[in-house]
Design brief:
The complex is a heterodimer of chains A (119) and B (115). With 119 residues, chain A is mainly β. Chain A contains no helices and twelve strands. Classes of the chains: A mainly beta (119), B mainly beta (115). Chains A and B meet through strand 5, strand 6 and strand 10 of A and strand 4, strand 5, strand 9 and strand 10 of B.
Chain lengths: 119, 115
Amino acid sequence: AQKVTQAQTEISVVEKEDVTLDCVYETRDTTYYLFWYKQPPSGELVFLIRRNSFDEQNEISGRYSWNFQKSTSSFNFTITASQVVDSAVYFCALSVSTILTGGGNKLTFGTGTQLKVEL
Amino acid sequence: EAGVAQSPRYKIIEKRQSVAFWCNPISGHATLYWYQQILGQGPKLLIQFQNNGVVDDSQLPKDRFSAERLKGVDSTLKIQPAKLEDSAVYLCASSLDRVGGTEAFFGQGTRLTVV
């Protein structure tokens, strides 16, 4: 069974501060995919990034960066120079490649981290 | 490109009543998902369709929940009878296929309140 843990329930920062959201996952599958989604107050989940289990390269996209470490089963997300528009709930999620276990591509989500960026 | 459309956005019903939600996925997406998101929790998969067939409904409370995807496009999720614990946001998502790692696109959800 898959499990995703986001231990930080809520984080508050002042604008322009850097912030890191933690994600720890559990799976017995050797091929899996990790995701980060953003959920603004409007409710829809917005895709941010996907990494597969064979690619541990860190990734940077503008103010966003992700650190994937298989040794610690972590996939952390850092926002540099945070802005008020970054305020949202952020979810880390995991899916496995096999379609033998259920329908395939089922996302297992963490409980989310509420990020509040204040002026 | 139009996103995943859901209706209604909000619904309030009394317990024991029935309710239905509608979802129109992104054109061409073969896989459709219904997730339930209870306040303060992450979304949980209820049911997954591949075209018009069910491929995973292991977490769907089948005594009260049902879903269909006629013609492999639109889908409806029904609850009958509703319980207080069904209060949640119901999110519909779609993806090109069900190969692991395929990006899923989500709708804005239907917020259900059962009183």
